[in-house]
Amino acid sequence: MALRTREFVSKLSRAGLSRLNFGIESGSNRILKKMRNMFTIEEAKEVLYRLYEHNVGFSVDIIVGFPGETLEDIEESRLFAEEMIALTDWVHINPCMVLDGSDLQRMPEKFDILTS
After folding, report:
1. pLDDT band at residue 89, thresholds of 50, 70 and 90?
2. If you ran DSSP here, which 8-state letter would residue 25 be given?
3. Are the C-beta atoms of 115 and 107 separated by less than 8 Å?
4. Buried b (16+ CB within 10 A) or exposed e, 64-91
5. 65 φ, ψ to 5°?
6. Residue range 15-29: average pLDDT?
7. Which uninterrupted H or E stretch holds 103?
8. Are 59 and 19 in contact, with CB atoms under 8 Å apart?
9. What angle do CA 26, 53, 6 make, to 5 degrees?
10. In the 8-state DSSP scheme, what is residue 2?
11. Contact 105, 99 (CB under 8 A)
12. Is 51:61 a contact under the CB 8 Å cutoff?
């Protein structure tokens, strides 16, 4: 993950990059794994703090209601969002939706989703 290096982020900043958007999707490593994301929340935080240090703005998207999500997972996402609000003014929280082509749409039985 190139954004994890201080040198790369510094180059982006010097080149004039002003803002990025990240679909982090959850503050829970358990849910990130279920979503098949290829990073941990700790790795995501490392990138976001690095961007903040170099004055590169960013926004974060979080999904709530992913199948199998527990109150503990939601609390982890809430705490993550709270931490990020100190670094950015854009934390978007969205309901989980079944989108065409997504794992939820292609394999609803894997997630105990009923279809009609």
Report:
1. confident
2. E
3. no
4. bebbebeeebbebbeebbeebeebbeeb
5. 105, 15
6. 91
7. helix 103-106
8. yes
9. 90
10. G
11. yes
12. no
For 82, the token pair is 């709270």
Least Cα distance to 66 among 22, 98, 29, 106 occurs for 98
Question: Which residues partner with 91 through β-bridges?
Answer: 60
CA distance 112 to 109: 5
Relative orientation angle of helices 41-53 and 6-14, to the nearest 10 degrees: 40
DSSP assignments along 67-100, one per residue = TT--HHHHHHHHHHHHHHHTT-S-EEEEE----T
| Predicted TM-score of the model (pTM) | 0.84
Residue 55 is predicted with a pLDDT of 87
Please give the radius of gyration of the chain, using alpha carbons only, rounded to the nearest integer.
16
